[in-house]
Every structure is written in C-alpha cells, then in structure tokens.
Amino acid sequence: MAERGQFSSKIGFLLAATGSAVGLGNIWGFPTQAASNGGAAFLLVYLILAFVLAYPALMAELTIGRHARANVVTALAQLHPSALMHKAGLAVGVGALSVAVFILSFYAIVTGWMLAEFLSPAAQLLQLHKTAHWLDAQSFSRNLLMCAVMSGLTITIIARGVEKGIEAWSTRLMPALFLILLGMIGYVFTQPGATDGLRVYLVPDLSRLSDPGLILSAMGQAFFSLSLGVGTMLIYGSYLRDTDNLPRMGASVTLLDTGFAFTAGLLILPAIYVAQAQGITVFNSDGALMAGPDLIFQVLPALFDSMGTAGSWLALAFFALMSIAALTSAISLLEVPVSVAVERWGINRPLAACLSGAVIFMISGIIIAQHDKIFSAVITLTTEYGQPLLGVALCLFAGWALHRDQLLKELRKGNPNLESSFFWRIWPFYVKFICPLLILTTFVQSLR
Ligand code: PHE
User: Fold this and answer.
1) pTM confidence score
2) Angle at CA 58, nearest 5°, toward 54 and 63?
3) Which of 84, 217, 232, 276 could form a disulfide with 227 if both were Cys (CB 3.0 to 4.6 A apart)?
C-alpha cells in the first residue's frame, strides 16, 4: 500500500483543521443563532460549551487518530484487542462514515447555492443579466449543476492527497477567507445602523440563559462547528506528526474556530441592522429576526442590491467567503470515505475520491429532487442526533478502549511535560465519565 500522507507542518495542520471547522456553521449558523437566542447570552453559553464539551471530544478524536494512524473504521476496530470491542468499533466507525457521507450530501448542495450566489453578481457585473437571473433563482437544474461543480472541486483537491491537496489548498484559502471577512466588516461598520446590530450581538439578554433550548442549540452548534463525531478530526489527527503537541493543537483549533464564529457575528449582525436602516424587512411576521435561508437569500441580497455597484462587489466578496469556507469543510468530509476506501480496500486515492464523490453526488441529487420532503430531515438526523451520539461514542472509545498508559504515551509525544499539565490531570477522567454524561444529559433533555 502507498505510504500514508502527513501534514508537513504545524501550520499546515492548523489551517486544514480550522478549514474543516470553519464553514457555513460559523458564518451562517452561529451569528443567526446568536441573534435569535439572546445575543451575547448565546455567545457565552457557546464559548463555555465549546471549551468544556467540544474541546475534550475533539481531543478524543485527535488522540485516537494519531494513535491508530488509520481511518475512522480501522482505527476504532483495532483500538482494543477484544472481539467485542472490535465489533463495537466497526459499528461506530461505519456509523461515523455514514453520517459523514450524509452530511456531505446536504453540505454540497448548500455549497452549490453559495457558488451560484457568487457567480450571479459576477454575471451581473459582466452584463449577463439572463444568466445572473438563472443563477439567482432556485431551480432543479441550477442546484444540480452548482452542486456538481463544487463536488468536482472537492474531489480534485482530495485526489491530490494530504500534503498537495488538503494542506496546500487550506493554506491558500484560509488566509483569503480571513481577509475577505475583515474587509467586509470594515465596510459594513461604516454604514448607518451597524451599531444597533453590534448592540444586539454583544449586550447579553441574560433572561434567556434559563431557556433549555438555548443550551441544546449551543451544544449542537459547537459540535457541528468543530466537525465532531464523524471522523474528520480523527483522520486529520492521524496525519499529524509525532513531534506535534496534541492538546495544544486541539486548543488552537478550538480557539480559531470560536474566534472565527465570533468575528463572523461582527459582520452578520451589523449587516442585518444596516439592511433594516435601508428599509429592508429583517423581522418575520412573529417578530423574530430573520435567520436561515431567509437571511442569506433575502435580507443580505436585498441589502447588496440597495447599494448599487458597490453592492455587487460586496455580494461577490460575501459569497466568495461562503464558498471558500464551505469548500474547506467539504474536503474534510470527503476525506472520511476516501481514507476508508484507500486503507481498507486498497483502492488508489484518485479513484477512491472519484467513486466516493460520485456516490455522494448521487445522494445529493436525490435530496435536490425531493428537497421539500427530505432536505431538513437529513440535516436534523445527521447533525442533531448523529453527531452528538457519535461524539459520546468517540469519547468512550478514547477513555475506555485505550489504557491510561497508552493515552499517556500518545499525548507525551511532542509534549514531554504532559504529566505535570492541567490537561493531563483532568482530561483522562473527564473524557471517560463527565463528557459522555454531559453530552447525553443535554441530548436527552432535548427529546422531552
Ligand atoms: N464544521 C463545519 C461547519 O461549521 C461543518 C462540518 C461538520 C464539517 C462535520 C465536517 C464535519 O460548517
């Protein structure tokens, strides 16, 4: 079998893992959830959960990944020598693989929408009004074609491997992403109404803290945003070098991801209120701030339209931002089935990328054709049920299938002073008992 890929540098891994984590969940999901859940109150709960629940779970994935140096199915199946644990590992591994495939199948559709919204103002600027209009309106053909283009890009990057594909592209795209975000924030801040948005975002409505729904939304958001439960972080961890300090890498990814979500809020919330100052409707009939698709496809485009040519450039920048963020997340999702195909079935990487990509594209096609019936069900099942439950399973595997000595040996690599660290005093016990219990409790609460 060909040699396993590896990230060539710390920064390469950081950008790739942050590229996976930072996606539509940060730029679209987080700010609008914050806006409709008490602003800074949500931010506070989100930050706490990200570090208290999601970071330990991320560490479970990174540690299992680097210890096993294998894809999610093989890694979990071989973690413990007993036959029972082997079977359990296979089952959880296949579960994670399937959830990754289904997440990518809807994620690729939404990524395609972003591409269409990016190309539309470009066509407008080129005076291609008919094309711009076609790109702007939801249709089966547009959605399928745009999804195909984004899937093709994802496949091409993944086919090139860890260093030349994932790392090289994340290193190019992530700085671009950050610059576009900062540039847009700078512009939006100069517009009337922006400070109202900032106030809503940053002044906490503490009465919302008692809302049980808020904690659940924040947990779901944290798990989705850190790409947990589906083996993406596990496989990226498996490409890390032995000289890298795992707890520090994980903490950096968590910080960068939450930092990015926070910064995206500094763009989206002010933009909503700038739109309101322009006379655009930003509240639903029931008085709630518009979120989800209404925000992205009505409020923001209406805002851009009201700004003339500058607006077309802004729209271009904004949807470039969304497309790039989504692409670096999509590649991490495709790496999950591709690594399984390469390592378990011995298929070569380019072929594995094409085959997995094609299967996922077919599922996307079915979802596009049956949008009203299945689109939101696939999202709910995978992100609200699949991710937290698999997250629990992965914590349990790290805590119970690996012996304390094995954990120590793995985490000591690149971190010789581990034993005297706060992390080592807390994490092994935490990931074994507390983290799974806390996730499960939050999850069960939500079912009632
Ligand atoms: N973290 C990505 C986002 O915030 C989504 C994602 C989920 C990516 C699961 C990989 C795995 O948009």
Assistant:
1) 0.94
2) 150
3) 232
Supply the DSSP string of 386-414, one letter for each residue: IHHHHHHHHHHIIIIIS-HHHHHHHHHTT
Which atom of ligand 1 has the smallest separation from the CA of 22? Answer: 4
CB-CB neighbours of 251 under 10 Å: 16
Q: How far is the CA of 100 from the centre of ligand 1 (A)?
A: 10
71 close to 89: Cβ distance less than 8 angstroms: no
Confidence grade of residue 442 (pLDDT, cut at 50, 70, 90)? confident
Token pair for residue 119? 């190309």
The residue nearest atom 9 of ligand 1, judged by CA position, is: 227
* pLDDT at residue 239, as a whole number: 96
> How many whole angstroms separate alpha carbon 366 and alpha carbon 135?
20
Q: Residue 81 Cα, ligand 1 centroid: separation in angstroms?
A: 32
Per-residue three-class SS string for 33-79:
HHHHCCCHHHHHHHHHHHHHHHHHHHHHHHHHHHHHCCCHHHHHHCC
309 CA to centre of ligand 1 in angstroms: 33
